[in-house]
């Protein structure tokens, strides 16, 4: 007999291996029938995690049809959208269409919501074969059902922003929240963001500024992104380097910073991030392409006394903070909007 606290975590939906939590499971039961403490969402759009989409796209050599087939195969096999290579997922938006009588989430039928729990633990069934998606964008128009557990979180979609924008911002809302928390708690003055012209990167720069940092360095991959970030005005200094080249990162950044935030969507940024960070400083690894062993062993090998944080996707107030930064910072909008399909 499952304890209600275990049920709240969705353990009853795990098919394989039994007894694991849904995030770690190989396969979930995506049956759309809701249990007494569950909520069902009629899915409208998925947002694939950037690291997952990039990996799928590269492994399919950019062939959109093949990417679509790969996503359908993953969801059919696993009952959730968890890329087996990156381990990451994303999130979704849709309409609440059934609420179990014991659900504590406070949602009502008809509300339009974004799930703030990862697709890697969300039971998902797709019913339209993703017919409206060309396989070339992180955002995926989709029909189907998703299940929220008693201990899930969802945000009612704001009515002043397009769905696609809200979805993109909410997907990465853990990054600005984590950045703000680290800057506030440590009193950090200097912050480096790797991948600073991306969605989580631009939000993290804005959050660092709002939290009191006074020396913001944005590292981007090329001159095109450098021009966009400079025009956005979010960083005091914009530098160009390949985040996966540690020596290039260190040379570009110069004096190491109090805090480094890793917002790239590619593997291999761990050592550059450590080198960019001053002794006693903190690295926030928001990227899902981060290797724990590369980060830990790399820091040890460089005798670097840095605190390394895994970018937890959840911090209280994270959704409101990110949406407000988007609403009020023209520079953030100028970087995010071109990345979002209307
Ligand atoms: P994004 O908008 O695509 O931004 C990533 C940025 O990194 C882009 O500007 C990209 O440039 C840049 N970049 C890629 N390779 C680079 C390199 N070698 N050197 C320098 N810059 C490079 O991605 P996002 O949506 O912000 O997501 C960023 C990361 O956050 C992903 O790894 C994602 O998995 C992770 N994430 C984590 C959580 C969590 O809960 N921790 C939640 C959501 C997402 P180009 O555009 O030119 O390629």
TrEMBL record:
GO MF annotation, one: L-erythro-3,5-diaminohexanoate dehydrogenase activity
Pfam families: KDD_N (PF26370)
Domain L-erythro-3,5-diaminohexanoate dehydrogenase N-terminal intervals: 12-158
The keyword Oxidoreductase belongs to this UniProt entry's keyword annotation: yes
Top EC class for this record: oxidoreductase
Enzyme Commission code: 1.4.1.11
Keyword terms, alphabetized: Oxidoreductase
Protein name: 3,5-diaminohexanoate dehydrogenase
Native source organism of the sequence: uncultured Blastococcus sp
């Amino acid at each position: 007999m499952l304890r209600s606290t275990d049920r709240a975590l969705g353990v009853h939906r795990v098919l394989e291996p039994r007894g694991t939590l849904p995030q770690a499971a190989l396969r979930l039961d995506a049956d759309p029938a809701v249990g007494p403490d569950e909520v069902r969402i009629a899915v409208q759009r998925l947002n694939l995690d950037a690291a997952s989409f990039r990996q799928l796209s590269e492994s399919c050599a950019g062939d959109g049809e093949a990417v679509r087939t790969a996503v359908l195969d993953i969801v059919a096999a696993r009952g959730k959208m968890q890329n087996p290579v990156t381990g990451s997922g994303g999130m979704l938006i849709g309409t609440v269409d059934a609420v179990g009588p014991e659900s504590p989430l406070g949602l009502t039928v008809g509300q339009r919501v974004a799930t703030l729990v990862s697709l890697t633990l969300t039971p998902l069934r797709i019913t339209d074969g993703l017919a409206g998606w060309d396989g070339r964008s992180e955002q995926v128009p989709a029909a189907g059902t998703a299940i929220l557990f008693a201990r899930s979180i969802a945000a009612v979609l704001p009515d002043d922003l397009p769905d696609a924008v809200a979805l993109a911002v909410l997907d990465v809302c853990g990054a600005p929240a984590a950045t703000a928390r680290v800057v506030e708690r440590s009193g950090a003055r200097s912050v480096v963001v790797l991948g600073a012209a991306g969605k989580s990167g631009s939000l993290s720069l804005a959050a660092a500024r709002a939290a009191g940092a006074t020396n913001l360095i944005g590292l981007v991959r090329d001159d095109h992104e450098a021009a966009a970030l400079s025009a956005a005005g979010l960083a005091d200094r914009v530098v160009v380097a390949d985040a996966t080249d540690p020596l290039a990162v260190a040379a570009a950044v110069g004096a190491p910073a109090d805090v480094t935030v890793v917002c790239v969507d590619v593997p291999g940024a761990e050592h550059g991030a450590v080198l960019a960070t001053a002794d006693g400083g903190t690295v926030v690894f928001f990227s899902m392409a981060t290797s724990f062993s590369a980060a830990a062993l790399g820091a040890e090998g460089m005798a670097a006394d840095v605190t390394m944080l895994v970018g937890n996707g959840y911090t209280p107030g994270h959704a409101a903070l990110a949406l407000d930064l988007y609403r009020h910072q023209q520079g953030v909008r100028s970087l995010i909007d071109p990345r979002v399909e209307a």
